Amino acid sequence: MKLKEMKEKFTAALLAAKAICDQAETAERDFTADERAKVAAHMKEAGDLKAQIKEKEDDDAVRKMVAEMGMGLNVAEPGDRMRPEGGQAARAGTIGQQFVEAKAFKEWMARFPNNEIPDSAKGLMSPPIEFKNLLGLGRKALITGEDATSAGAFVVPEYTGIYEPLGRMPLALRDLIAIRQTTSDIVYFVRQVQQVTQAAPVAEANVTDFAGATAEISGEKPEATIEFELVDALVKTIAAWIPATKRALSDAAQIRGIIDQELTDDLAEELEDQMLNGNGVGANFTGLLNTAGILIQAWNTDIWTTTRQAKTTLRTTGRTIPTAWLMHPADWETIELTRDEDGRFFYQGPIAQGPQTLWGHPVIESELLTEGSVILGNWKKAVLWDRERATVSVSDSHEDFFIRNMVAILAEMRAAFGLIRPSAFIVVDLTAGS
């Protein structure tokens, strides 16, 4: 199939798909099953044609490049002596010898110091050298950039400096919770454990000395009770280090930046895991899921009933308005893929746009949360106190690093974490009954 015909069929497939879309949009309705299948077929055909067109255009470009590289080479009758254009008659020898002895090539090389091409040179282009005949065979020679004995000797590699890391999981918790600063190694805050509930209407007193007799009204106001507790959150250290040679750091400046970024990213990932899952033992934080006093919502009937009841429980028992859901991406996928009895997505399917919400509250995904366990909460009631933000330092004082020209690159941070009101969070079970 010719390139022109391919492009015509590609355009026709796109127009056919657009016509179906326009028809549904004009009627202000969703696609029918047949229309959806036709649109998919047209788009597949267009995609296949696009790939074929690109392959055809790439082939044509290669042919053009080969033709341009052969321009200026003429074929003479067999028996003619090989003669570089503009130079003296050359002695019989290799093509390389004839090439480097050509006058035009020598003048071009004279531009470089000591007639040597420096390693830093970019975009080299020598003048075309024309030969009347190549070895008397009556054919043109193609000087390629792949052979080290041909033009490949003049090809200078281009190092882009692009570095692509493996990638890490997106972190979300620091954007939800409250962040404060501290200059101490221990943080104290006061948490209310009993609130005033004794208020009541009071009748006016009718006696000056109340004895409890019938019809006597003392007019005494009820005494209120309120209780608090002092809670402490210890500042913990999170750290990681990596060895490196001084030569590696000096010869490749980019390496230091990569190491610094990797270390600090690892600190941030561990911090988020500690804030959620820390067990409070030893140097571990007491994470949200292991904090006493958080609410629990058991499974009931289905996802929709369970999550909606959690919202009610958080309001009536936790006495707070939630700010967001936190759930594993797999749980959010399960919710988004839920369909009604007619096969329609509850969440408008794959073409839905806008923020992710469930029962009116944003949904934030975290891979650090266990599948089947969802948290709804007022996230401003969780606080991270920064004692020392992530820092990176270098030292050769580790073991025998000094005499081995090695250094240790250390990243560390210090912080404390706590829930100032545990009942502002409810953990929802989405696995029971499944």
Describe this protein's structure.
- The protein has 434 residues and is an alpha/beta fold.
- It folds into 4 domains: 3-69; 76-158, no CATH class; 186-234, no CATH class; 236-340 and 356-429, 2-Layer Sandwich (Major capsid protein gp5 fold).
- Helices cover 29% and strands 19% of the residues.
- It contains 8 helices and 12 strands.
- The protein has helices at residues 3-26, 33-69, 95-100, 103-109, 246-251, 253-277, 303-316, 329-336; strands at residues 178-181, 186-194, 227-234, 236-245, 295-297, 324-327, 357-358, 361-365, 373-377, 382-395, 406-419, 425-429.
- A 6-stranded mixed β-sheet has the order 5-12-9-6-8-7. The chain has a 4-stranded mixed β-sheet with strand order 1-10-11-4.
- α1 (3-26) packs antiparallel against α2.
- Mean pLDDT is 81; it is low at 69-92 and 133-140.
